[in-house]
Design brief:
By secondary structure, this protein is an alpha+beta fold. The protein contains five helices and four strands. The chain folds into two domains: 50 residues, Winged helix-like DNA-binding domain superfamily/Winged helix DNA-binding domain (Arc Repressor Mutant, subunit A); 83 residues, 2-Layer Sandwich (Alpha-Beta Plaits). Helix content is 36%, strand content 19%. It has a four-stranded antiparallel β-sheet with strand order 2-3-1-4. Helix 2 packs across helix 3. The longest helix has 13 residues. It starts with 6 loop residues before the first helix and ends in a 17-residue tail after the last strand. The relative contact order is 0.18.
Length: 159
């Protein structure tokens, strides 16, 4: 592991995770840096690939999402080609908002967002049940979804 972040970099990352819309001037003030130094640090963090992107969080009902679910998928076998083919296929589906390749009884946990129960049923029957590499699916409807946008950030000294 290569940790290139110092305490100031970590603080920049923590603050931007909470509010990526802060102006450079506001961010610099919160950190206690000059705006030019702050801007240079943010640019360096972007160049190093620390930030994968800046996103707008949507309110699901406002965009027609009435239901979310986790689908546990078990594959028939675990050959690299089978895993990659299934992964690529699933990620093309617009209802998929998260994919986890996991250990344990199941191979994948797939977070989906659909309009309603009929949409969920249709998706399960068309996108999952018809796949030859899928041997088992199990669906759990999500009653409540809370997401933290804050990833822990460590300096080398903290590890």
């Amino acid at each position: 592991m290569n940790f290139l972040l110092d305490k100031t970099d970590c603080e920049i990352v923590r603050i931007l995770q909470k509010n990526a819309r802060l102006s450079n001037k506001e961010l610099a003030y919160e950190i206690g840096l000059s705006p030019s130094s702050c801007l240079e640090r943010v640019r360096r963090l972007q160049e190093q690939g620390i930030f994968e992107g800046f996103h707008a969080e949507l309110h699901p009902p406002a965009v027609g999402i009435g239901m979310q679910a986790m689908i546990a998928v078990r594959l028939t076998h675990h050959a690299l080609n089978t895993v990659e083919t299934f992964r690529e296929y699933i990620l093309k589906n617009p209802a998929v908002i998260g994919l986890f390749h996991v250990t344990g009884a199941n191979d994948f946990l797939i977070h989906i967002a659909v309009t309603d129960a009929n949409h969920l049923r249709s998706l399960l029957l068309s996108a999952f049940s018809t796949r030859p590499e899928v041997t088992h699916i199990e669906t759990s409807i999500i009653f409540e979804y809370t997401r933290s946008f804050q990833m822990p950030v460590y300096t080398q000294k903290e590890v």
